[in-house]
Design brief:
Helices cover 26% and strands 37% of the residues. The chain is α+β, with helices and mostly antiparallel strands and 145 residues long. The chain has one domain: Lipocalin (Beta Barrel), CATH 2.40.128. Strands 1, 2, 3, 4, 5, 6, 7, 8 and 9 form a nine-stranded antiparallel beta sheet that branches.
Length: 145
């Protein structure tokens, strides 16, 4: 009876420890496509599918986590990256020194980059959706690629 009780205790502790680290683990080696964005509590901006940059086609905005503590944000024409800190459901993006300087990202893409680095501080994952939120109602909705 003692062995069964100890076994159950170990299994419960294992389940708790796995669930505590699950969110951080699921971001590593993933890529997410920006689906919509809310720049403040009273507005919603949806990704404009008709935006065509100088290259003549619609390129989605993606956020990748290629390895632990790193992120890459690919806009329609430009990209940037840097360090990301994840503790529990808190997330913080730090710029890695700048963005490439090609022309022609949409205003939506530029707002998305600014929100990510300056305002986003929490995240949740549900199935294939990643939701990044800020303290003042900012939201970036993403779907897994």
């Amino acid at each position: 009876m003692k062995k069964i009780t100890i076994l159950y205790f170990v299994l419960i502790l294992s389940a708790i420890s796995i669930s505590c680290f699950k969110d951080k683990q699921t971001l590593i080696n993933t890529t997410w496509r920006v689906e919509s964005m809310q720049v403040h509590a009273d507005s919603v901006l949806t990704y404009p599918p008709i935006w065509k940059g100088w290259w003549g086609h619609n390129r989605p905005i993606t956020l990748s986590f290629p390895k632990q503590n790193k992120y890459i944000l690919q806009l329609e024409a430009n990209g940037c990256g840097g360090n990301v800190s994840i503790i529990g459901n808190k997330i913080s993006f730090k710029s890695g020194g700048g963005m490439t300087a090609m022309c022609c990202d949409s205003p939506f893409a530029e707002s998305c980059a600014s929100l990510l680095i300056n305002n986003i501080n929490r995240y949740t994952i549900s199935d294939t959706k990643l939701v990044l939120t800020g303290a003042h109602g900012e939201i970036i909705n993403l779907v897994e690629q």
